[in-house]
Amino acid sequence: MSAAYIAFLLDRFAACADQDAIVWRGERYSYSWLVETTNRWMRDLDEHNVSHSAVVSLEADFSPHAVALLLALIDRGCILVPLTSSVGAKKEEFRAIAEVEAILEITPDDRVTHRSTGITPNHELIMQLKQSGHPGLVLFSSGSTGKNKAALHDFVPLLEKFKTPRHSMRTLTFLLFDHIGGVNTLLYTLSNAGCVITVSDRSPEEVCSAIEQFKVELLPTSPTFLNLLLLSRAYERYDLSSLRMVTYGTEVMPESTLQRMHSILPNVNLLQTYGLSEVGILRSKSKSSDSLWMKVGGEGFQTRVVDGLLEIKAESAMLGYLNHASPFTEDGWFRTGDAVEVDGEYIRVLGRKSELINVGGEKVYPAEVESVILQMDGVEDAIVTGSPNPITGHMVVVRVRLSTGESLSEFRSRMMAFCKDRLARFKIPQKVVVVDDALHGDRFKKLRGNNV
Amino acid sequence: MKDELVTLILDTLREMGSSGQFTLDGVTAETPLFGKNGLLDSIGLVSLIVAVEQGIEDRYQKAVSLADEKAFSQKKSPFRSIDSLADYAIELINAG
Questions:
Q1: Could you list the residue range(s) of the whole structural domain that residue A13 is in?
Q2: pTM exceeds 0.90
Q3: Closest chain B residue to A420 measured between Cα atoms?
Q4: What is the tens place of the pLDDT at every residue in A38-69?
Q5: Which of A407, A412, A418, A427 to mutate to test the interface with B (most CBs of B within 10 A)?
Q6: Are B47 and A430 inside 8 Å of each other by CB?
Q7: Does the distance separating the beta carbons of B20 and A420 come in below 8 Å?
Q8: Quick one: which of A106, A381, A406 has its CA closest to A251?
Q9: Where are the domains of chain B?
Q10: What Rg value do the Cα atoms of chain A yield, rounded?
Q11: How many other C-beta atoms lie within 10 A of the C-beta of residue A363?
Q12: Looking at the domain assignment, is residue A451 inside a domain?
């Protein structure tokens, strides 16, 4: 029996049956294929004894069957726990935190395997959601600065915004299947009968090649990826003229990276997105393609700034964390921990408050320093963090990857000269470390943990 | 060894000075580094110490911490001159 949670989607799919819904490994899958396969999975889940409202992990990347199964599980009222290989060794721990009852794993050749875990859920929030009969979604924060928090959502309010028709676009699913941005991209694209274009790896070459081959119009991605794209110059080797919009989020965009992207792709709209696992993705509007100022909000979201920090009240907010105390104020506002500047209706994100570096009483946000250092010749990537220092309390540390082969002291000297007129003196890194390894993880987000 | 350390500290100061923070004209091993009439402010001192620590690690394969509680509890600050900083560094290198 279907509770029709996704009936509105199936109706839209049926209206454009012959159009491409998904491109996977170069093959096209139409909306009629997706409707048929989703319906088949709705029946097959009975045979697999996946009960209604069961907690089910869907261990997959974007693939035709992963998408069909996701839809079927939502419709069945299951609590969905998407997991990708990027979580690596933490899979077992995540399943335990989410109290996963059944594992549906999609193999690299898009076949589905199923097994039960023997776990019986008893978390209060999960039991409440099960009783309501609504489908759910568990998302883990990336934990780039600490513990992974598991956010439990009621899927019904998350689906609500997709009922309003918007532009249909051919969209590359860059953000991962188990990330709020990835889930949002998928549902946005399908609900508007766009086409989901998947990639097997997320290198600049592969992404640009897919844009050219499948006429991608929208690329939702991260500042770290855009920096890699600029370095690789892959945009010179492929025809990217189909691209209309690049959206960036998940971390603070260095101003310098944005300006360079805008000069290379002047006809592409560069738009900042803003969202969090805990509240969903807000509607946002950048002031312009070369501006970091944006308006955020949209139906179902209220925002306010308290002590320089952004707070959000969302109808689609999570029910709570499964492994952490509630982060909401008593009247339901979520404290994002993001420090922002405000100019009328516009805000600009400065960085996480937890990443603020206090150098002898002066405040430094890593993004501003990174943006300057990334402009230096031969700097492939740069991450700025704070480190305790007995003289100034904290000092600014930059880890850089260089293509120049310079010694530490050669680079340090050049950096100091370069930064002198571009940064206040206390913001110029007091410590420089030259590294050989990539400074980002599978999610194309800077790794700021101190152990990196 | 003392000469090597004095050279390392002077080279590091020269590197920092080249971006216009100060000039090394007339600087000797006895020039006050930090404190009254010192060449450096606290941020300059942090940069110098970190760079000297990295230089020591590079040359002597020894990780030393030139600015910690111990340094501040010394009767005479190791940061008062290039000479005293070099002595303090040698003490730490030989202690490890």
A1: 1-300+318-324
A2: no
A3: B19
A4: 999 999 998 888 999 999 999 999 999 999 99
A5: A412
A6: yes
A7: yes
A8: A381
A9: 2-16+32-95
A10: 22
A11: 12
A12: no
